[in-house]
# Entry
Amino acid sequence: MVKIKELKKTDLEDILRVETKAFIPPIQADKKVIGDRLNKNHIYLGAFIEGNTDLLVGTVACRQDQFVPDFADFIVKHPNFEKWANRKSEPVANALFIYSLGVVPEYRNGLVAKALIGKALEVAQLQKKDFFVGDMRVPSYNGSCYPGFEKIKQNHYVKSVIDESLLCGKTMGIKELAQDPIVGFYLRILPRLRALGITDAKFLEKDVPSGGRRVLVYQDLRK
# Structure
């Protein structure tokens, strides 16, 4: 059984421990960055295994911001991951943005990540947000081999869908990318997700497996 609770600044070291185990080294946030996010009133939700409440095995970060389902608006406000993840959480906003969903390898059976996403969605609904917004890595774009972290083969179909969308400005359906393990996992949990668009390679250049890109998604909570 997985229990989810909101983490505090006193949990910073534990959040950092999960960060260094859950994410491939090039994209890990350091202690200063995580502390800065907490100081900007971001919410960190933590997953604990029932019976061992001291064992934090997964986290997801959230912040409040204004959102319209328009990719052009996103590009203006969030040109890169720094702007996406490290903006101040606004006290009055119509959307909950989630990012940095991470689970330590020993507990990647899907249950922990599902519980974290479910709790974040519950927070958005309790706060009466209009939108639930997220970003997804697509490591199958180039393939990823980081022993102890992830091993994902390149998927040429996923790569071609993304490249065509970027080249032609083609509107992409999120289900077209479901062959990617991360995108597919999100869709199984949140089947109403819609694709906002794909960022360029400079969004997070250190994420080489994803080609520096993220797939931006949202769910309209008004429906």
